[in-house]
Amino acid sequence: MPLGDFRAVFFPYSLQKQEDGRYAVLKREYKPVAFYTRDWVKYEEHPVFVKLKGLMKAKAAKLSDKGETNLDHIFLYNEATNPVRS
Fold it and tell me: Are 68 and 20 in contact (CB under 8 A)?
């Protein structure tokens, strides 16, 4: 997917839990949302984390594309889908 595609740069793909309990909101290429790069990004070097209050397994299941309760990495849609179309 080209970086010139708005969705490739700004659309959240997953939430990845960090050691301190906050989450990195990542786009499809596992870069923080709005990062316009293909270079390796160390999340801890950038102010990209959010605290999601009250995120429990039930809420993770609602956010997850597969209804999974994993709180460490929540995928909002899967690789084979285009969320703009469905």
Answer: no
Question: Do the beta carbons of residue 79 and residue 22 sit within 8 Å?
Answer: no
pLDDT confidence of residue 84: 67
What is the mean pLDDT for each group of 10 consecutive residues in the chain (86 residues)?
A: 69 93 91 87 88 92 94 89 67
Residue that has been written with the tokens 């490739």 in this structure: 8
Distance between CA 38 and CA 14 in Å, rounded? Answer: 17
CB atoms within 10 A of CB 3: 14
